[in-house]
Amino acid sequence: MNLTNRDQKHLWHPLTQHKTTQDALGIVKANGVYLFDEFGNKYIDAISSWYTCVYGHCHPHMVQKVTEQVSSLDQIVFAGFTHPPAVEMSEKLMEILPKNQQKIFFSDNGSTTVDIAIKMSLQYHFNQGKKKLKIIAFQDAFHGDTFGAMSVSGLDVYNGPFSDVVLKVDRISVPNQENIDRVVCDFKNILATNEVACFVFEPLVQGANCMKMHEAKYLDVLIALAQEQDVVCVADEVMTGFGKTGMYFASDRLKYKPDIMCLSKALTGGMVPMGLTTCTQKIYDAFYADEIAKGFFHGHTYSANPIACSAAIASIELLQSKEIQDGIQRIEKGHQEFVLKLKNHSNISEIRTLGVILAIDLKLNIDRYGKDRNEILNHFMSKGIFLRPLGNTLYIVPPYVIKEEELLMIYNTMKEFIDAL
Amino acid sequence: MNLTNRDQKHLWHPLTQHKTTQDALGIVKANGVYLFDEFGNKYIDAISSWYTCVYGHCHPHMVQKVTEQVSSLDQIVFAGFTHPPAVEMSEKLMEILPKNQQKIFFSDNGSTTVDIAIKMSLQYHFNQGKKKLKIIAFQDAFHGDTFGAMSVSGLDVYNGPFSDVVLKVDRISVPNQENIDRVVCDFKNILATNEVACFVFEPLVQGANCMKMHEAKYLDVLIALAQEQDVVCVADEVMTGFGKTGMYFASDRLKYKPDIMCLSKALTGGMVPMGLTTCTQKIYDAFYADEIAKGFFHGHTYSANPIACSAAIASIELLQSKEIQDGIQRIEKGHQEFVLKLKNHSNISEIRTLGVILAIDLKLNIDRYGKDRNEILNHFMSKGIFLRPLGNTLYIVPPYVIKEEELLMIYNTMKEFIDAL
User: N or C end of chain B: which has fewer CB within 10 A?
Assistant: First the structure.
């Protein structure tokens, strides 16, 4: 029996309607930009396995660091103890984070980093004797699937059955040149209630919302307004972090820096799960008190898992290397040239790029998770490329180690597909 | 600068008031039952690093399996793909799970397994056109720290600042011989509203609630009542799973099996984080439909991470081995003899054991996270034993590989401490 059949017996896959979905393909090996299936076929991983394996799969530096850690210190309670990988990781991360980020709190995935950011924001005010319970988030945001993260997310496909049990969130449109005045007005009206604890956003790119992009200057206006009133600004950089936008973080492109940042995915370069919620000294200081109850009594058992921290150290070292920085620039340049080539294409309604992210809205009307979308996915798989359309949006986020000829192969395959629509 | 000082710059520890806490001790290595600090001292890890490293730290079988996986397949999107470690893990897990558990959904820690269990329960009814939003949980329960998990938890120390934003939960007392009639009455009254989606509980042992224990026969009464009305019964076995109670799962001791089980911690033997929410075919079937929206649109990026799955395979293989089963029996027997020896001790208000869990309530009145509790912790550290008192409860959950003489050393040190109170 092949992997596909064995899989069907007991495995329930994420984001999947098992009755209408296609069979899951068995992947047995991955190396660099390539995935290898159980039948001997190979595919370029054009979305870096959900934006995690950005240094390529099983990069030798990552493998070495993780392997060394596995046999020396696997796990230790992170309350009362510390260990070399956590300490070294914190020091490495400080080299690349916006300078206002000073403290690091651990969890295990992107959703939990957002639940933690919300809890930190609520308790930041609570500890100062202020009851602020309102949360502001963007329309069509996606921040994860635990209850807190799901509440700030605004994509109905994920929240439908839970609408009665999510936290209450005030929503504003993502600002752009046309709507900025209205958005600012809406935003000010909510702030004027004086009940807002935090403003949560994906800076510059809304990943799950088809990689829609917005400009830093408009987001800056909102952050400045929020910070004037001591509303905690939370940048969810789970998707955008670690080079995706061409800089270390999307927040590097902002004039007003967030108070809290959420990091995961590429943090550990695709090795094992880890999430971080980082914050300013000011946030941290609101919890630092003689009263024990003012502490942040949140904790996950595998917090600061040494193996995950080692993966993160290797990952940040790679991100800082010339090889990877050159790779990011090579992809950025390639994307920009491809955008110029396609921007007036009659089968495209919009094409956009930022850093290594390239997204193309096709003039098609197809469901996010339907048969038509699967056909596009299958077409690219048959050409040796794994990409995962979001409805009618084709997008890629290639590993930073991708070669020029591999990039060109992806562009050519995309263009041929679009021409033939 | 030592690790302790470097740690203080940027690391925010879980469950910690940094102003009043002691310095974090730097652990640099772990092997078998021993932790080694940066000054060359060693300690027996008497709580298996929060019940994770139950096969001892860096067990050669775990190290080998994980190391092999790290260099062959690190990560792959688990929507549309599958891979050997996920498939093999599912098959291994089915060998030891209660037979009614048929489907496995992945996440990354214990809290998320509970958020998922709650979402699954709510959508199970929603998909059948029923609006059931009530959740029943035990008083003083602990299920984790994300918003859903925190809501069902009932320990105030963790939820204080968030009481306005948690999900509404109906609470009942943990049943025992004295209160069973009243608890059944309360439980029936809540069920009678016909609005209950699920009943969430830690079976037989409430971990964070000082390892308080209850009998299977009383819990069985509640599960039977709930299941009669199609209320989803969720057993949170994050702490109790994988041998802690002497059997594979605490639910093995129940006549009425839960509909959903939450697993994490020892699942991966302390290597890397992973969580599983398992369920019956009946629960799964409520999501299996032609309508795509009836699917479970929840997903974490590192779902079924191959490295974590490999750790889980090694872990289950060890659990099934004679060496480990003998170890569990050796600890059980040791605990039972120690309980007999101490049960009428004048400085003890209660002593209890189940499987490898031993808990002793001292006749002291001390805070959960205060100075007095730290002094007890320090006393045992000075004797070469890491245990972490919960207020006035001393407890141990030793790695299954602990030797008889190491166990005796722990018992003797505990007895000396208790005698001297």
Answer: N
